[in-house]
Structure to design on (367 residues):
């Protein structure tokens, strides 16, 4: 997909350009504050750029079948909006690592860990962990604000106020959904003790939809389509494709969070087990095992000091119960639903082909 490769390069250039523009502003506050810029660049270099790609192909799916030709101004705006989604994603990752107390991200120390290490190296006063947490929250807030700035700049370039307003409404809705979904995730890690097995499974599914599926696939697709002047029918088609694919995307993430190879995922094997994530995989496992196994499972899940043997024990329960196989079947089912939504869709054929390829990439990945 040569166009996707070029898109990734354009987005990296736009992000670098944006951060260069902000360097003088941040530096004027003081040299100590430039650490925020350094960590911003670190978070915004590389990555899979899935959200940006879905935004681009959402736009192409609509722009490719309309009468009005594509202009360079419109293309620049799409790259800007896709880049703003990457800034938003970076902010979410920084905050997510703080909430989950996760010390690694992409095989390197996460933002709060990096700030804490800096505190320890300089032998500053106070608590290093508290400093790291505070600094990372502020970094996430800064990236979140910058994502809005970049979005507004891109929408101004678009030159189509109606399409810009539609894209902004979808962006705002995505931001609300993912924040609410993150709260649901935190809630379920604490409130699960008062729910029965059916409620736990339904709660885990809700977290997937609002914390990940909408913001990872559905919203970027629709935001991109809105930039191209999508009709309600086109937006609905992309939703019918994007939501099930987003669910499959997160289910694959949940499997990798437990069974992934640390050398490939960049996070320790079984990290989600140490963090106590109440995923669909966990809910299914608990519903299928004997009460004695469930009690042992609950005692271990969420222990940050889990040994390799204990991780293997929890993984074994997931396999032996049939929960892992059921998750794989669920992924396959959601992928089928997503692909079916593109059959005979009123979207550009080249975009449909690209979206089918992306479907395979996001659900068959190893990281």
């Amino acid at each position: 997909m040569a166009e996707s490769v070029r898109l990734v390069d354009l987005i990296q250039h736009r992000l670098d350009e944006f951060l260069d523009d902000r360097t003088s502003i941040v530096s004027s506050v003081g040299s100590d504050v430039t650490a925020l810029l350094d960590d911003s660049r670190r978070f915004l270099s590389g990555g899979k750029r899935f959200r940006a790609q879905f935004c681009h192909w959402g736009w192409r799916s609509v722009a490719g079948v309309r009468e009005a030709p594509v202009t360079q101004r419109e293309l620049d705006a799409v790259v800007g909006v896709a880049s703003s989604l990457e800034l938003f994603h970076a902010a979410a990752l920084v905050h997510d690592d703080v909430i989950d107390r996760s010390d690694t991200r992409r095989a390197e120390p996460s933002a709060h860990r990096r700030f804490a290490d800096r505190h320890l190296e300089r032998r500053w006063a106070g608590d290093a962990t508290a400093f790291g947490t505070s600094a990372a929250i502020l970094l996430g807030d800064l990236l979140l604000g910058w994502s809005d700035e970049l979005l507004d700049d891109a929408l101004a370039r678009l030159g189509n106020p109606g399409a810009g307003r539609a894209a902004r409404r979808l962006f705002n809705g995505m931001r609300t959904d993912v924040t609410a979904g993150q709260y649901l995730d935190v809630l379920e890690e604490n409130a699960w003790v008062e729910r029965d097995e059916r409620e736990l499974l339904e709660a885990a599914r809700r977290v997937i939809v609002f914390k990940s599926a909408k913001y990872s696939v559905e919203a970027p697709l629709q935001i991109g389509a809105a930039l191209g002047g999508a009709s309600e029918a086109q937006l609905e088609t992309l939703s019918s494709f994007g939501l099930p694919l987003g669910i499959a995307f997160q289910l694959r993430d949940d499997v990798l969070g437990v069974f992934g190879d640390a050398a490939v995922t960049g996070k320790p094997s079984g990290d989600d087990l140490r963090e106590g994530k109440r995923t669909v995989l966990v809910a299914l496992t608990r519903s299928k095992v004997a009460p004695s196994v469930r009690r042992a499972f609950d005692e271990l899940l969420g222990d940050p000091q889990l040994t390799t043997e204990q991780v293997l024990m929890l993984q074994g329960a997931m396999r032996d119960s049939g929960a892992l196989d059921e998750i794989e079947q669920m992924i396959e089912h959601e992928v089928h639903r997503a692909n079916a939504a593109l059959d005979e869709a009123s979207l550009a054929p080249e975009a449909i082909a690209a979206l089918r390829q992306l479907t395979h990439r996001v659900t068959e990945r190893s990281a």
